[in-house]
Specification:
Layout: E1 5-13, E2 20-30, E3 37-44, H1 60-75
Antiparallel strand pairs: 1-2, 2-3
Length: about 80
Amino acid sequence: MNGINLSSFNYRFDTTTGKCLYAQVGLHGQNADSTEFVDASIRINPEDLPEGSSFMQMTMDNIVVLAKKKLASDTAIKEQTQAQQ
């Protein structure tokens, strides 16, 4: 992969309170030497932000970094236990 790049970025607000509910981050990566690619849509919730931070305090770049980390964590190979027979 030649890196994971931003493809879209949206905030979702509560129309009653005006509070930001989450950010939806679209990410794309492609291997230039083949047809391999990854597309992901990662939701960053308030609990994903550093303690004491809000969406309005975070830059878009900071939120994209969080999304890339969340993508890596969500797609990492997890240890699996084999079912005992």
